[in-house]
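#lab-general

N.A. 3:47 PM
ok so I finally got the sequence cleaned up, no stray characters, all 155 residues accounted for. can someone with queue access submit it? mine expired

B.Y. 3:52 PM
send it over

N.A. 3:53 PM
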Amino acid sequence: MATVLDPSGDFEAWRVPANDEGTDGYRPSADEPFMNPRQQEYFRKKLNAWKEAIYREAQGTLSQLQTDSLREADLADRATSETDWSIELRTRDRQRKLIAKIDAALRRIDEGEYGYCEVTGEPISLARLEARPIATMTVEAQERHERNERVSRDD
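B.Y. 4:20 PM
back already:
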């Protein structure tokens, strides 16, 4: 798994499967037509592998919750355990939201809209899609969006 930093600085919720997981060694190239069927299938597999990895982690958390209970006699130990579980559950909640974004990306592939900026309609770079397969905007459009958000917040 490669780890990609999301804008909030959270590493855990944004783990993306390694480039070759489930892709038979194929990697999209700028030398081929953009979002041809092979590229679409590559990103579909990548997104599905990411989603499955999230489900596996969530199942592990669920199993752990069912087997471990907060039985620590010491109040400080109990507080530490509760804090750890709180962080774990927040991470799972972020991942639940991430699954919705993965599903939206899969729908865009099915509809032929995947890989194109929702603002400008231009192709999103393959490097950006490799790093963040749920991206919906080019880097430039995303930067403009974030600048506008920052200006709005400052007002």
